[in-house]
Amino acid sequence: MERDDERVRSLVDPRLMDPDGEIVARAHLAPDDLDQVAAVLEAMGAWSRLERELSEKAREYMRLGDTDMRALRYLIAAQRQGIIATPGMIAAHLRISPAATTKLTDRLETGGHIRRLPHPADRRRIAIEVTETTMASARASVGRSHARRFDAIASLAPDDRAAVLRFFDALTQAAEGIEPGLAEA
Question: What is the DSSP string of 24-62?
């Protein structure tokens, strides 16, 4: 039985979302090409929904909010690269205020996810380190998911990976500078 969201997903088809062709230029495409473009858009939507679900499950598993998870991902990456993370670096990465960073690090420390340590090179600063338990939890949830994505990409032929890279580069360039809810001039 088809779910409601599966029936509605065809709204990404430009022939349905923009029947008069006012926004989506498509006159140059054959019907089969339009079908394929719509299929790619639908696949992107399916992936986006799944990614949100996976992210939510990881946050639930680790009992953390979205900002907390983003902070931990950043801290784990820094730690694995041998970079000593500081509250200021977290604030800059997350684009949050120093006060919000203090609340965030307090919450993460209380939850046993991080430790605050004296900075080894500057005693006026604090270093932030992810605990071994949280590293293991992240590896068990987010790490396994990332490994499956890696395997899916690695299974592609080199030319196919190059096509995927061109696609994401083009998608990123198309989206840069576009404010949500605003039409391009």
Answer: S--TTS-HHHHHHHHHHHHHHHHHHHHHHHHHHHHHHHH
Phi-psi region of 63 (alpha: psi -120 to 50; beta: other; left: phi over 0): left
pLDDT tens across the length of the chain (185 residues): 555 555 555 667 777 777 777 777 788 888 888 888 888 888 888 888 888 887 787 777 777 888 998 999 999 999 999 999 999 999 999 999 999 999 999 999 999 999 999 999 998 999 999 999 999 988 887 777 888 889 999 999 999 999 999 999 888 888 887 766 554 44
Q: Where are the domains of the chain?
A: 1-62, 66-137
* 170's tokens: 């083009």
Q: Which two tokens stand for residue 66?
A: 């979205």
Architecture of domain 66-137: Orthogonal Bundle (1.10)
Tokens of 12: 């990404």
- Is the sign of the CA dihedral 67, 68, 74, 77 positive or negative? negative
What gap in Å lies between CA 168 and CA 164, rounded to an integer?
6
- Answer for the pair 93, 128: CB distance below 8 angstroms, yes or no: no
Q: Of 106, 105, 88, whose CA–CA distance to 97 is shortest? A: 88
Q: Confirm whether pTM is higher than 0.70.
A: no
